[in-house]
């Protein structure tokens, strides 16, 4: 059991649909970090069991979550022989969950923030689509940012001649990109004569 498996489970709680219709974890009182830490992956559907989760280790499914529920105890009660329950990650995440719950019960926001190791980023606000059916939850829309040409790399005739001379000198060509105080340099060296054949590598 490693953090990669935990991160994969955590990602299942993040809406990722391109059309803005992705499912979102509907239970505000149970954090996705806690559900993933308890071994659950989000498998909910809009029409049927919107808060359904599944453990990939024991295949236990659970739904109808309430604010008072402890996903770690629910997993232990529902599937006591699950191999994930014996891992250190399960124990560590359960400890964080209990501390967070205790701090929340004491109603001290300062104490709650000190226990909160992993923050869930806020959901990106989305403008509702025109003509959306009433009662449907807004999803997340993804928009590609425009591509801006900063530099046109078409060489002039003089530059073409310089490139020919450079190729014969066997010195690498440097391409430097600077953005916000960071300089990124690419060196391109010609390792041999260029041919007319093109090969496709799959």
From TrEMBL:
Transmembrane segments: none annotated. Signal peptide: none annotated. Residues 129-139 have a biased composition (Basic residues). SMART domains: BIR. It holds the Pfam family BIR. GO terms for cellular component: cytoplasm; nucleus. Residues 119-141 are annotated as: Disordered. One of its GO terms (biological process) is regulation of cell cycle. CDD domains: BIR. InterPro entries: BIR_rpt, IAP. This is Uncharacterized protein.
